Amino acid sequence: MARRTVADQFVEILLAAGVRRMYGVVGDSLNPVVDAVRRHDDIQWVHVRHEEAGAFAAGAEAQLTGRPAACAGSCGPGNVHLINGLYDAHRSMAPVIALAAQVPSTEIGTSYFQETTPCLYFRECSYYCATVSRPEQMPRVAQTAIQEAIGRDGVAVVVLPGDVADQQATATYLEHPYRLEQQPTARPSDAVLEELAEMVDRARRITLFCGRGVAEAHDDVVALAARLKAPIGFALRGKDWIAYDNPYEVGMSGLLGYGACYDAMHECDLLILLGTDFPYVQFMPSEPKVVQVDVRRERLGRRSKLDLGVWGDAGETVRALLPRVAEKSDSSFLDRMLRRHGELVGRLRTYAEEVSDHRPIHPEHVASTLDRFATDDAVFTVDTGMSTVWAARLINATGRRRLLGSFVHGSMANALPQAIGAQVAYPDRQVVALCGDGGFAMTMGDFLTLLQYDLPVKVVIFNNGSLGMVALEMLVAGYPPYQTGLKNPDFAAMARAAGVQGIRIEDPADVRPGLREALTTEGPVLVDVLTDPNALSMPPKIKGEQVRGFALAMTRLVLAGEADEVVNMARSNLRNLPRP
């Protein structure tokens, strides 16, 4: 009988917890673990080109499937590369187990080649990080890591020296099975529910603002809105779960916002936050009473003033509240918000059609076309920046589509590696990565991972030759954009050189046929769309200091002899340039 190593034991514990893939780059300190993966049929090693991409891919898989996923990095630089993707997974509440290989146990503390201290630098991006220094520790450390990851929805790290991984496994009697399907619910106390019901019954104008926490409560939230005549707004991570089949929807708030959500939140007299940890205090109202419902007590009141904190699951709370509140008859506030929302969204979509023949190509037209041609269960991954803006505003939820991005951590270059994790997990599902040119260039090496595994991801690059969101941030702060320009290659030609179909779109007349061809082609495809570098995205409400900053930046550009750039920007953004 073959010797069972500590690495075998670790892999089998992962398998028992439902892990089916480990993303990483092989390396000497990882050799025992990689070989254990090779010898176990039910787990796959996905060889990415950069460990950061592996961590992003694992986080995406975990978010989509609800099961834990794993990634790994060899000692020192290999596992240091995991950090950014693990930060994103941790802040996105994705159950990810990371293996950080370590130098030989006898060399720890001697400034050995590639030696680092993983338990120090993974501390902030994980709930748990521990080193296995003896074989007897493995089952308890690995299982504790898994329990932390799946129990708290985040990252756990196991640090494992290569020589320990190759030793014979022991303490097998400590291994135990998992029940991943058991998900407890948390219901508020009757006293808190009665207090909430009294606040609801007293209020005349109520708005519901939803986040990811309403994932299993769509119908209940819509039923509550119907009873209260309440508009429903949402944060970006709530869009997938509440923006479809919803006659009370009024869009999003925040920097990416659209529609009447901002107005509904500020003109109500009771705002109920359901399962959201919306981060932008600047967009939260100060006048209405605010109730927050969250299963994580530590989040109550940390983003806004709070008149009542309700500790409980959003769905359970809504279901318990429904029979306790009286139906409202006055729908004037709801009707007014819905009219305003219809006007604003109609204007946005009309604009996307009106510019369909404009040159340079407007990114809104590209996103709108993708929305029309993509399947109803497509997974969209979006880079941080303008790509997220266009997706948030123009990619419609269907109840089956998913929209993933670095929405809490805000990292560049997340879309391509997240698309890898999504496509590996769902090989028969359409996956579309909406990449900025800056983000794609940052992790461009992992485009080869699509080729290596023949993953049919459709990569659409908004190629505007600029770090567009950074340029906008400079403008509204009063600075002329500096060092935001990018000198890009022909990305489609690069794809073809790598053996992947590449489509370059420069003429607006080619947007529809080019994207339709990409989405219907088997295998990976890269679409390089040259978009207008002057197309800007403005938040739903412009503050006075932003107007002054924008005007100051424009003045500086004119005085610097760049008046043509100002004129081009105005022509590209007549619909949304800030006005005093």
From TrEMBL:
One molecular function GO term is: magnesium ion binding
On the tree of life, the source organism's domain of life is Bacteria
What's one Pfam family here? TPP_enzyme_C
Record's protein name: Pyruvate dehydrogenase
Which intervals hold domain Thiamine pyrophosphate enzyme TPP-binding?
A: 383-529
* Chain ranges of the Thiamine pyrophosphate enzyme N-terminal TPP-binding domain: 5-115
Instruction: Please report the organism this UniProt entry assigns to the protein.
Output: Planotetraspora kaengkrachanensis
Q: What positions does the domain Thiamine pyrophosphate enzyme central occupy?
A: 193-321
Q: Which family does it belong to?
A: Belongs to the TPP enzyme family.
Q: Which UniProt keywords apply?
A: Pyruvate, Thiamine pyrophosphate
For this protein, the record's InterPro entries field holds: DHS-like_NAD/FAD-binding_dom, POXB-like, THDP-binding, Thiamin_PyroP_enz_cen_dom, Thiamin_PyroP_enz_TPP-bd_dom, TPP-bd_CS, TPP_enzyme_TPP-bd, TPP_POXB-like
